Amino acid sequence: MGADIFGNRYYTETINRYSREMIRSTGQPKVEESIFLNVMMNIDGSISTTNSRIFYEYTKGDEKEEELPGNIVNKENYIDPVTGLAYIGLLKEVVDGSVIDKFDINGDGDRNDPGEKDPSGTFILGRDIFGNESESLTQTEYIIVNGQAKDDLAKTVSQGKNVDGSLTYTIRKLSYSYSEEGRLESVENVAIGIGSVKLNGIVVIMEITYSLALRTI
């Protein structure tokens, strides 16, 4: 619990579960699952809640270089030159978990399509003092650079329901690039493609180059 200099208040809670296997094999605590909750109560009366869940996997020491996941950028550094196998306890995989039951990812008005039940990603729910509501889901693909997880590709779908009856739908993808040392070098919009959304019963067909924002009343 805390507040910034402007008086916006927040509550943050993180629950980490550690891998018993890694403790036994390396003697070091390594996070296997991390659950995050953040509640923001702003001075303008708006409230937002952020939920996320992330799973981590580590090398067991029996992997050959070609058996390591492709999301590891510098796999050769994972290999012990003496044994030809991976060192034990290096970060191997990072994936988002699910924090909500359903989410209308494609904007067609329902939540029953493939991938919309128990979707992975970071979920944000917001509401302002006027009763306008918004929700968003960010699904992130990760790469591992020098043993650290980095965002590789992030897709965010946002939806809004306003007190005037209007609905909004926004989708965008961002791609991240890093140096060999793991420093962030660039963030770029990624073309999304062709799709459709249903807003207030109206199906809108669109060709999206980078990002899309729709509003209907």
Please describe what this structure looks like.
The protein has one helix at 20-26; strands at residues 2-3, 9-18, 31-41, 47-58, 91-96, 122-127, 133-145, 148-161, 167-178, 184-189, 193-199, 202-208, 211-216. The protein is mainly β and 217 residues long. It has one domain (2-216). Strands 1, 2, 3, 4, 5, 6, 7, 8, 9, 10 and 13 form an 11-stranded antiparallel sheet that branches. A two-stranded antiparallel sheet has the order 11-12. A hairpin with a 5-residue loop joins strand 3 and strand 4. The relative contact order is 0.12.
Q: Could you give a quick summary of the protein structure above?
A:
By secondary structure, the chain is mostly beta strands. The protein has one helix and 13 strands; from the N terminus they run ββαβββββββββββ.
Query: Please, what is the average pLDDT?
Result: 89
Beta-strand segment tally: 13
CA gyration radius, whole angstroms: 21 Å
Largest sheet: 11 strands, antiparallel
Enumerate the spans where pLDDT stays under 50 for 5 or more consecutive residues. none
Please estimate the helix content: under 10%
Order of helices and strands: EEHEEEEEEEEEEE
**Structure classification:** mainly beta
Contiguous helical run count: 1
Number of domains: 1
Distance between the termini: 38 Å
Shape: globular
Strand content: over 45%
Oligomerization status of the protein chains = single chain
Name a few traits of the molecule:
eleven-stranded antiparallel β-sheet, mainly beta, globular, two-stranded antiparallel ribbon, 3% helix, 1 helix, 217 residues
